[in-house]
Write a structure and sequence with these properties.
Blueprint lengths: L14 H23 L2 H8 L4 H34 L4 H15 L6 H14 L4 H12 L2 H16 L3 H50 L1 H9 L1 H25 L4
Helix pairs in contact: 1-2, 3-4, 3-8, 4-5, 5-6, 6-7, 7-8, 8-9, 8-10, 9-10
Length: 251
């Protein structure tokens, strides 16, 4: 088990991940730069834009990890509710939930297994379950987990029905995840179409540049031609950025 708690509000890419992003994005931008300018030095300069995509990739992986944690948390809540229904205390229920989750997820480094194990260890070391859950919710940086922790603390102090609270929370999170998946599926095709429309002009320019070099020569040799190519490239970049923002739908 990882000794240091995970801060889910940030994602630090490994050196290998950064290198892969730089290689892939650098290759793409180098190709685009060479297609639009047919100049090796400008193409190399264009490849430096790939360093900005390291942060972009980090945000993508951060969002993916949060979605995984949210889904796994729902499974953990179902396991907790089952243990509580069997008459176990909330403290022992976390221990049994870890065993159940290990049957569901074969990887012992699964996020929810690590977190529930950490909560169980804190309880065994003398911390109360409310404090352990609160620390987890603060690190998780997820609305569903924060809301569950608040309701759990109020319910435990007032003597409410913990089993029903946990089961209902799991159902609500499950419905939200299903809604997010439906939205993701509905916009997936539009994302693909927008990417095709963004890169189609680049392919057309590449075909014309290499199949009819005389026809495209004024755009590469004259100053006004390079200005036109720069404006076109800038418009394509703006279009890609706007489509990414439009398609970035969060529930």
């Amino acid at each position: 088990m990882n000794k240091s708690p995970i801060d889910y509000s940030i994602y630090v890419l490994t050196l290998g991940q950064k290198g892969m992003v730089w290689l892939v994005a650098g290759g793409v931008f180098f190709s685009i730069g060479y297609i639009f300018y047919q100049n090796l030095w400008i193409a190399l300069l264009s490849s430096l834009v790939s360093f900005g995509f390291i942060s972009f990739r980090g945000k993508q992986l951060l969002r993916k990890r949060k979605m995984e944690l949210n889904y796994q948390f729902k499974q953990g809540l179902f396991s907790l509710a089952s243990s509580l229904s069997a008459g176990r205390s909330i403290e022992n229920a976390f221990h049994e939930s870890v065993n159940d989750l290990k049957l569901l997820y074969t990887d012992v480094n699964t996020l929810i297994i690590l977190e529930f194990t950490r909560i169980h260890q804190k309880i065994r070391n003398g911390d109360n379950v409310e404090k352990a859950l609160l620390q987890f919710s603060q690190r998780a940086d997820l609305e569903d987990i924060r809301n569950f922790t608040d309701v759990f603390m109020i319910c435990k102090r007032s003597g409410g029905n913990l089993v029903e609270v946990i089961r209902r929370t799991a159902n609500v999170i499950g419905e939200k995840i299903e809604m997010e998946q439906e939205i993701a599926l509905s916009v997936a095709q539009k994302k693909f179409e927008s990417n095709i429309l963004t890169f189609a002009p680049i392919v057309i320019v590449a075909v014309l540049a290499f199949s009819s070099p005389d026809y495209m020569e004024p755009l590469y040799q004259e100053v006004i031609g390079r200005i036109i190519m720069t404006l076109c490239l800038g418009l394509l970049g703006c279009c890609w950025w706007f489509t990414q923002k439009i398609m970035d739908i969060q529930v």
